[in-house]
Amino acid sequence: MVVGEAPGENEDLQGEPFVGAAGQLLDRMLQAVGRSRQGQGAQGVYIANVLKCRPPANRNPQPPEIAQCEPFLVRQVALLRPRLILAMGRFAVQTLLGSNEPIGRLRGQVHHYQGVPVVVTYHPAYLLRNPIDKRKAWADLCLAMDTAGTPLRR
Ligand code: URA
């Protein structure tokens, strides 16, 4: 399971998460580890957001909005029982881990949310702006695969 921040305008219009350029990068990242949002069983990835609708003018989510939406995420995780959650970006990471630490300090470890292992990484929109960090994101994906029980050769 991937958890992102919030739908953008295109996501709201299409009713699907991650459909823009960041979504295309996410699809390529998933493909690199043999996963896809269309995949069945262990190959499939369910994509959710912390916020269930778009904040006005795409501004950052505010704490009361995150708190209002979190019960939906809790229920999604309970119903899905994913092997692993990949938390992408500051808002997803801080919401799932209840932490204010920056992503750089939380990467490289396995955390837990509702008993499900959580690996944190950068948001694909951030990676589009900072491609130098793609190598760190690759290391995070490798940790995610190791944790999910399907290690990759590096
Ligand atoms: N960014 C997100 O975090 N989620 C989306 O669904 C789209 C862009």
Task: Record the SSE blueprint.
Layout: E1 2-4, H1 9-14, H2 21-32, E2 47-49, H3 63-80, E3 85-88, H4 90-97, H5 103-106, E4 111-113, E5 116-121, H6 124-129, H7 134-148
Bound molecules: uracil.
Kindly give the count of domains.
1
Largest sheet: 5 strands, mixed
Separate helix tally? 7
Biggest sheet, strands in spatial order? 2-1-3-5-4
Please report the distance between the alpha carbons of the first and last residues: 22 Å
Ligand identities: uracil
- Output the radius of gyration: 14 Å
- Indicate the low-confidence ranges by residue numbers: none
Tell the overall outline: globular
Order of helices and strands: EHHEHEHHEEHH
Number of strands: 5
The CATH superfamily label reads Uracil-DNA glycosylase-like domain
Q: Which CATH class is shown?
A: Alpha Beta
* Alpha-beta classification: alpha/beta
Describe the structure.
This protein has 154 residues and is α/β, with parallel strands linked by helices. Helices cover 45% and strands 12% of the residues. It has one domain: Uracil-DNA Glycosylase, subunit E, CATH 3.40.470.10. It contains seven helices and five strands. A five-stranded mixed sheet has the order 2-1-3-5-4, sandwiched between helices. Strand 4 and strand 5 form a beta hairpin. The longest helix has 18 residues. The structure holds uracil. Uracil (URA) binds next to loops. Uracil binds next to loops.
